[in-house]
Structures are given as C-alpha cells and as structure tokens.
Amino acid sequence: MDRRSFLRATGLVAVTSASGTFLMGCAPSTGNNSADQSSAGPNATDAVFVTPFQHILNYADIYVGIQEGYFAEEGLRIDVVGGSGTAASISQVAAGQGLFGKAASVITCPLIADGNAQIITVGQGDHKSQYSLASDPANPLTTPEEWQGKTIGVISKGGTTELLLDAMSVAQGLDPTKVRKVVTGADVGSLEFLNRGEVDGFITYLGSEAAFKQRGIELNYLNTDEFAKMPGDSYLVKTEDVGPQAEAITGFLRASRKGYEFVEDPANLDKVISAMAAYNKVEVQDEELAKLKIEAQPVICKPASGGYLSIDMDAWESGVELMRKSGIMKDKNRPVSDFVTSEFVDAI
Predict the structure, then answer these.
(1) What is the DSSP string of 163-192?
(2) Residues 37-90: tens digit of each pLDDT
(3) Per the UniProt record, which residue ranges are transmembrane (predicted)?
C-alpha cells in the first residue's frame, strides 16, 4: 500500500507547506470537562488528550484518573476531547492541538516511516489485540488458510481491521487479495451479515464481544494476535514535545497507570461507571454491559510482565517487520526507536 493510499484509508490528508509536510484530519468534538480538577492548583499544566473515538470505556483510565485526582497529583489539568477517529487523534497531536493522542502501531508506524508524521509512542495501552475474527462455532475459522477465497467482514474499509486481516494472511505466506472484504461495522448488527450468509466471518472488537456475551450469543473468536501480533492502542505525543514536556508526559503516564489499576479492582466498579458517566452517560446506561466491558480491560491492557503501559519492545520489533513484509509500511530502514520510546514509562 503506497503512502497516498494509506493516508486516504486512515482519513488523513498530507498537506505540504513551506515548513514541511504535516497531517490534517477532521476536528474532534469538544469533551465534557465537568469533572472537578480544581485540586490541580492554579499552576497546573493544561494538557489535552484527544481520544481515537468519542468517549467510551476504552479510555476509562483517563476518566478515572481525573475523577480520583491522579492527574491533579501530577500537576496536570486534563481536557479530554472526543475524537472522530484515529486520524483525528493523530492529526491533532501532530498539529500541536493536543499533547496526547492514542493509536495502534499499525497506524502510527507507517505514518511515521512513510508519511513523515512527527509523533512517537510513549506508553503501550493494549498488550493484546482488541480485535478478533468471529465465526460460526459450527464452522469455525481458525487459520488464515481457511478464509482464502471466502468473504470476511471488516469494521471499515482500509482501516486497522482490514490491515490486520491482510497481515494475518501475509504472515502465513498467503495472498490477502484472495480474501474478499466487505464492511460489516463495529456494533452487534455485524452478526446479521453472518446469519444471512453474506460473510464467512467478521472482525469484532472488545465492546461488541461484551455485548454478544451479554446476550448469550456463542461465536468462535480468533484474536488477530494469533497470526499478526502488533502493539495495539498506545499513547503518543508529538516528537518535538519529548524534551520540553518530559515532566508532563511522565506525570500523565503515572496517573494513567493508577487509573488502569483502579479499573482493575472490582470493588471500584461503581466509581468507574461514575467517571465514565461524566463524559458519556449512554456508554454506561446499561450497567450490566458496562461491567462486562470494564472487566475486559485488564485482559487487553495488562502486560504479562511489568506495570500497565509498559512497552513490549519485542512486539514492536516483530510488528514493524510484519508491516514491512505485508506492504503496510514501505520503509525498510527506520529503527524501532523512531516509533516508540520506553524512557517515560521507565521513569514512573
């Protein structure tokens, strides 16, 4: 996939000016800043976090960190802005309109290597893929060979899920163009495509899996990590902010880690729901479903070793190589240190 195609697929536009090439996307919607952050003090540093997609439980560590005063303890006053997609999160940070963003390596690495995006990952949020290939338990898809020549549903055309699906095929030496991809979306309605026989399987994510579980719907899930392990959604900053904003970055990650640890404790369920409700009441209106989503967070985000947000450098190394092998990234020479750094997490 060439640079222009990748930018178009992710919704970013490359704009060239006298100062160089930068990335622009749709402006995000303004977040609800109703949580009390007055304890941060008058000299607190204001910092904007642009989410990849609106306000959902995937970012509960941040909402909890605000509610419980973790960011205030670090001298930070956080404004959470709901993005309209991963492109918005990246582009706003690249344009200096947000200090922190969040995106998966399959998106950030090609944009850095092939698109000259001046961003770098500073904390790894997801240590297991949020995405799985769902199929009928009576006719499960368990290896990429089994969906060659078949039709698979993806959440969006040209987005993360299609890239991961293609990478799974490439990792097994198979041609991803032999798989027909159609858009089935990200909600529980995607199941209807399977029920009608329009697809042989479809990509699902953490939230929809929780909804299927709540409804007692049995599906066979094959996590994309099984064949295409790549670091998932991770916190990123603008490269030029690494030095001047070092204290704020370390403080942000320290507060976020405390947020993750808070979310993990079942005794804090009501408070997690309260923190989320300050930004999106609809997300936690169904408390049973919200509980399932919250319980799934540690499964995705907790590293096998080390604390939350630790960088799995082996996963980054192998992920970058797979992106190159599958054509997601054209660059063959950039070191992994251009994409991710562990210096701030190590300083927590």
Answers:
(1) HHHHHHHHHTT--GGGSEEEE--SSGGGHH
(2) 666 677 889 999 999 989 999 999 999 999 999 999 999 999 999 988 888 899
(3) none
